[in-house]
Amino acid sequence: MSVISNLFTNTDPFISLMNMCPVLSTPIDWKETPEAHIFMADLPGLSKEDVKVEVSHGRILQISGERKSVEDSDQNTLKWHCVERNRARSFFRQFRLPENAKVDQLNASVDNGVLTVTVPKQEVKVPMTKVIEIEEK
After folding, report:
1. How is domain 28-69+85-120 classified at the CATH fold level?
2. Which of 41, 63, 94, 118 is the most exposed, fewest CB within 10 Å of its CB?
3. Where is each SHSP domain found (predicted)?
């Protein structure tokens, strides 16, 4: 079946597009406090085993995972009229962390379907400016 026909069968086209796009299907907020960078991702129905949080290349925060479809032993006897939440799909988001991020102290937790990743901040040392006296010869 073509991609176009998949978009318009048995469901709202916007929902289909949203489900295919990892950016739309996994909304993430990033806020900065004086102490930390905080990322919050809506991941309803996922457990911590379904989600992976890692830092690669020094400062790239990656949040990924997979939503598994609900398997039903009576699939032959069931008739689905709308399938928006039971589709298997993976997601992957990444963010470049600023220089002041303490990537070795990253913390992640899940509460009520919301993943919270906290990246503490450190003070970035500003290079000292030194004035050089110019001698006259």
Report:
1. Immunoglobulin-like (2.60.40)
2. 94
3. 19-137
